[in-house]
Amino acid sequence: MIRYQMGPLTLWTLVLSVIGLCLLYKLLPVLCVLVMALFIVSALDSPIEKIENRGFNRTMAITLVFIAGLLVFVVICILMIPPVTAELSILNTEIPIMRSHLADHLSNIPFTATLSNSVRSGKVVVNQSDFQTMAETYSRRAIKILIYAVSGVLLASFIMIERNRLRGGLFAMVPRAHHVLLSRILLKLETIVGAYIRGQLLLSSLFTVFTFALLTLVGAENAIVFALFAGMTDVLPYIGVFLSVGPAVFAVLPHGETATFIVLIAMLTYEEFESRFLVPNVYGKQLRLPATIILFALLVGATLMGAFAALLSLPIAAAIMMLIEELRVDLPGETVPAEKKIIREENDRAEKEYERRTEGISAQQSAAIAVKIAEGRLKNENAAKS
């Protein structure tokens, strides 16, 4: 009989691991706020640096970028809220007519003729107490999401303002032998997240313009509302197509079956064109993931934290793959290619050169040197690959 005896060190490791996982689960919303803040920092770092190059100090550049973002948000709200309110009012008055038309169509089909009377005479009864409970629940959720969003924006602004000090503190906690590696990881994370967010903004803008032009051509009312909604839902690959096409088709239903069919085919064609051509060219090599990994990442993100986590799942998946490569985690069934061995040897030499150059200086000063060395190495690697 084989007995397994757990030593004190293993027992304490297991206990601390369980406590850590419980704390991580409890702090998951806070971690999401931190991740959102880091995403904002990565997305806005490039435009802030461009403004700094024009002679502005960093605080002024950050302020200008955030003011521009706030103005865009206000303009979107002004464009969407009044038309949405009007559309809901029109929809409320047209529901009986639409139900009657649906009943007429069902009565002409043998398999659904028995449902036509039920649809024609059906009534939706909503209990007032249930409605109030539902309104309170969704209001609390909306307030919580708004608080998290504002917290993420504020945290991002503080991170950008105190960038050098925070980076120095981070490098002070890591042995100097790994500073260049840490710089490479941070630079690649910034590239991945920045490329994803800027690319998705471009794709959403193009889809918004296309939807607005299409709905305007067929004469749909409040085309700007449905176009903006389509652009916002386009951030979710695979899922966004169902969320965007449905409302757009619904908007042109009063204009006849021909217009509805044209809008449906045109939007599905554009979605195919976007996934096959635009996405690879916009994201480039920074976020090219296999379709299976994309779908798996979306499912995991949506299961854990809903649509918000699904939105972040793709760059997180790309970051994990990058970390596996940078931390030299070799999979059991693969051999290290010769070019990768050369890169690793050059990175080791860069680490030794960095330790020599930063001997006796502070972590904040050495961090700037590590970033420059990592930037030079990444440029050389990208040039060699191209």
User: Based on DSSP secondary structure assignment, what is the total number of beta strands?
Assistant: 0
N-end to C-end Cα span: 60 Å
- Tally of helical segments: 14
Shape: elongated
Instruction: Give the topology string: H per helix, E per strand.
Output: HHHHHHHHHHHHHH
Mean pLDDT: 76
Rg over C-alpha atoms, rounded to the nearest angstrom: 27 Å
Largest sheet: none
Derived from helix and strand composition plus strand pairing, the structural class reads mainly alpha
Strand content: under 5%
Helix content: over 70%
Total number of domains: 2
Low-confidence blocks of residues: none
Describe the structure in your own words:
There is one protein chain. This protein has 14 helices and no strands. It has two domains: 28-120 and 133-161, no CATH class; 164-386, no CATH class. With 386 residues, the protein is mainly α.
